[in-house]
């Protein structure tokens, strides 16, 4: 073996120069190669920035009408980029304020369902046996209930409180999360690497922290990106029925509802909020798909 | 299979019991009652009304009375639509809602499955990407956005179809059914595509190809059946989605189905009507999930529920 190749071998074997790439860095690189997912990520970032900053930059307020322009189409002259609604309120600002609420509901309600779902699923999966069986039968039981109708009843019963929307939506969405996390925990628990960790003397806590949680994370991330649009949709659905967010606050669903009623005379009041809502849902779904592809070890090659 | 079926149906009883109990007490906790109106009723009349509907009794007694009624399949009188029983209202609204939902489901299956299978056969080609992007748009546009847009296009601009109302005629049914079916078509297409791709990669398809079986036979005899399994299991949640979706669609197209009754009933504190519809929906969901499981076992011979129990 010549000196040159030996050098090359030595360099290759010198572990000090090798940095391990974690699963998540790998996944991140795969995600960046997915054009649809990257576009979705950019659209969502822009949406968040626009929704936060947009209303501050506008001359108009989401509550105070412009007394000179009722139901005017979008124009640069009047300064109402998206036109005004029947009460003369600027639709650009209202669409963005509505976006704040819709996105906020999406995030908070998803967080609620995440917390309930993960703890429930992880406990069931980790304990296993009879406890697991009982806990999952309970989930099956409430799975069969027409939950949308309970939410409608809840909204009617307790008034249209925005915190209640968070809790109600979060409370119906945790079931899937619990099932997924439980299944994942159950299969991870019996994996060889957990066995190996246990054999080499790792504590339970170490196993959960170092082996179970990081492996759960991928599934959870994918699921969260797919839950957020669902939640936004549920909120819009409630607002559309007039049971969600109340005036003077608004959300995309409420705006679509108002727009749908003035469809013939003022189609712009439907089109703008509808496009914002659809674009956001679209981006979240694409991002979720991209993440699933990036994190799914099955399609690694 | 019979044993499994019986077991499943029996296990639905506690679920239904829980559902009814929960719904009963939830709606009774609500502030306001069915006889609240702009003009306050004289106290004597209100007392008479409450006595007539047994609302003056203690809650547990009302609950027991209601349970006894339900056991006889009597949902009681409506509190809002006087002279109507809830059974009458449901009997009037249900055929409309079922026709709407059933047709939408059939349409979704008839279009979604072929589209998905077709995309799978052209995986990662232009046709696949195009179809799947369109499907994603279909999923991302909610019913209540799609419906006004369709009305704007087909009813107002083109004037081809009526914008609302209901009759059992193709022109009246077209828009609501299509609105309800569109997101489902998209979901079913995506699920079929994913499942089909996975099945086509599996070894029994490779074997079939290796022994020279015609591609058509492989697709229709071997690949389609297992690829349909995930679609079948989607139908359970799909039924629930149709029910909630039809609430919106019925409202937009002013269709007198049970969805419209439900929202009106909840707003009017029409206790019995709301309960009746919730129970009906619960039964439907349970029934649908049960049917899905049966079809599942029939399609996939590896699943045999009875043996698992043994």
UniProtKB/TrEMBL annotation, chain A:
Domain ABC transmembrane type-1 span(s) in chain numbering: 99-288
| Residue ranges of the TM segments | 36-57, 101-126, 138-156, 216-245, 265-288
Q: Taxonomically, which superkingdom?
A: Bacteria
Pfam families of this UniProt entry? BPD_transp_1, OppC_N
What is the topology of this protein in the membrane according to its UniProt annotation?
A: Multi-pass membrane protein
Tell me which CDD domains the record gives: TM_PBP2 (cd06261)
What are the recorded Gene Ontology BP terms? peptide transport; protein transport; transmembrane transport
- Compartments (UniProt record): Cell inner membrane; Cell membrane
A GO-annotated cellular component = plasma membrane
Instruction: Tell me the InterPro entries matching this sequence.
Output: BP-dependent_transpt_permease, MetI-like, MetI-like_sf, OppC_N
Which controlled-vocabulary keywords does the entry list? Cell inner membrane, Cell membrane, Membrane, Peptide transport, Protein transport, Transmembrane, Transmembrane helix, Transport
UniProt similarity note:
Belongs to the binding-protein-dependent transport system permease family. OppBC subfamily.
The protein, known as: Oligopeptide transport system permease protein OppC
Q: Which organism is it from?
A: Wenzhouxiangella limi
UniProtKB/TrEMBL annotation, chain B:
Question: What GO biological process terms are annotated to this protein in UniProt?
Answer: transmembrane transport
Transmembrane segment boundaries: 98-121, 133-161, 173-192, 231-253, 273-299
Keyword Zinc among record annotations: no
Q: Which GO terms describe its cellular component?
A: plasma membrane
User: Which subcellular locations apply to this protein?
Assistant: Cell membrane
Q: Which residues form the ABC transmembrane type-1 domain?
A: 94-296
Q: Which InterPro entries match?
A: MetI-like, MetI-like_sf
What are the UniProt keywords, alphabetically? Cell membrane, Membrane, Transmembrane, Transmembrane helix, Transport
Question: Chief subcellular site?
Answer: membrane
Q: How does it sit in the membrane?
A: Multi-pass membrane protein
Q: Which Gene3D superfamilies match?
A: MetI-like
Which NCBIfam families does its entry note?
PRK09471.1
Give the similarity note: Belongs to the binding-protein-dependent transport system permease family.
List, alphabetically, the PANTHER family matched: INNER MEMBRANE ABC TRANSPORTER, OLIGOPEPTIDE TRANSPORT SYSTEM PERMEASE PROTEIN OPPB
This chain belongs to which protein, by name? Oligopeptide ABC transporter permease OppB
Q: Which gene encodes it?
A: oppB
């Amino acid at each position: 073996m010549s000196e040159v190749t030996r050098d090359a071998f030595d360099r290759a074997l010198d572990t000090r120069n090798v940095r391990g790439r974690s699963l998540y860095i790998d996944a991140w690189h795969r995600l960046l190669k997915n054009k649809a997912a990257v576009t979705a990520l950019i659209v969502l970032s822009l949406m968040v920035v626009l929704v936060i900053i947009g209303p501050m930059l506008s001359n108009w307020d989401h509550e105070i009408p412009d007394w000179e322009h009722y139901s005017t189409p979008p124009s640069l002259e009047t300064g109402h980029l998206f036109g005004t609604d029947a009460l003369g309120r600027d639709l650009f600002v209202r669409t963005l304020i509505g976006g704040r609420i819709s996105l906020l509901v999406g995030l908070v309600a998803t967080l609620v369902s995440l917390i309930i779902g993960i703890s429930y699923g992880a406990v069931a999966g980790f304990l296993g046996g009879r406890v697991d069986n009982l806990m999952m039968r309970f989930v099956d039981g409430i799975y069969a209930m027409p939950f949308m109708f309970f939410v409608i009843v809840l909204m009617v019963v307790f008034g249209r409180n925005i915190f209640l929307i968070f809790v109600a939506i979060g409370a119906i969405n945790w079931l899937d999360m619990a099932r997924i996390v439980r299944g994942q925990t159950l299969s991870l628990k019996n994996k060889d690497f957990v066995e190996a960790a246990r054999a080499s003397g790792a504590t339970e806590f170490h196993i959960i922290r170092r082996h179970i949680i990081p492996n759960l994370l991928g599934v959870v991330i994918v699921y969260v990106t797919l839950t957020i649009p669902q939640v936004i949709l549920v909120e819009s659905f409630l607002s559309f029925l007039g049971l969600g967010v109340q005036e003077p606050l608004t959300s995309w669903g409420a705006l679509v509802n108002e727009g749908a009623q003035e469809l013939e005379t003022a189609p712009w009041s439907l089109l703008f909020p509808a496009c914002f809502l659809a674009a956001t849902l679209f981006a979240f779904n694409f991002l979720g798909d991209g993440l699933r592809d990036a994190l799914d070890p099955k399609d690694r090659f | 299979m019979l044993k499994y079926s019986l077991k499943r149906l029996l296990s639905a009883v506690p679920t239904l019991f829980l559902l009814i109990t929960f719904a009963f007490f939830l709606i009774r906790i609500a502030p306001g009652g069915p006889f609240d109106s702009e003009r306050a009723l004289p106290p004597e009349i209100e007392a008479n009304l409450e006595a007539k509907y047994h609302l003056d009794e203690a809650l547990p007694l009302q609950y027991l009375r209601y349970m006894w009624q339900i056991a006889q399949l009597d949902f009681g009188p409506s509190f809002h639509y006087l002279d109507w029983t809830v059974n009458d209202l449901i009997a009037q609204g249900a055929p409309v809602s079922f026709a709407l939902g059933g047709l939408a489901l059939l349409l979704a299956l008839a279009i979604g499955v072929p589209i998905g299978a077709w995309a799978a056969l052209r995986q990662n080609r232009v046709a696949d990407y195009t179809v799947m992007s369109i499907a994603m748009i279909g999923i991302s546009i909610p019913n209540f956005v799609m419906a006004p847009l369709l009305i704007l296009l087909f009813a107002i601009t083109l004037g081809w179809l009526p914008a609302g109302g209901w009759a059992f005629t193709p022109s009246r049914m077209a828009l609501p059914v299509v609105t309800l079916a569109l997101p489902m078509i998209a979901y079913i297409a995506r699920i079929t595509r994913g499942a089909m791709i996975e099945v086509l990669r599996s070894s029994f398809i490779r074997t079939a190809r290796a022994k020279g079986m015609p591609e058509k036979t492989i697709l229709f005899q071997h690949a389609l059946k297992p690829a349909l399994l995930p679609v079948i299991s989607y139908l359970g949640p799909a039924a629930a989605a149709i029910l909630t979706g039809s609430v919106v669609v019925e409202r937009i197209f002013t269709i007198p189905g049970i969805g419209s009754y439900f929202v009106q009933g909840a707003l009017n504190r029409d206790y019995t009507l709301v309960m009746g519809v919730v129970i009906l929906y619960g039964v439907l969901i349970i029934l649908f999930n049960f049917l899905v499981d049966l079809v599942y076992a029939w399609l996939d011979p590896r699943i045999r529920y009875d043996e698992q129990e043994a």
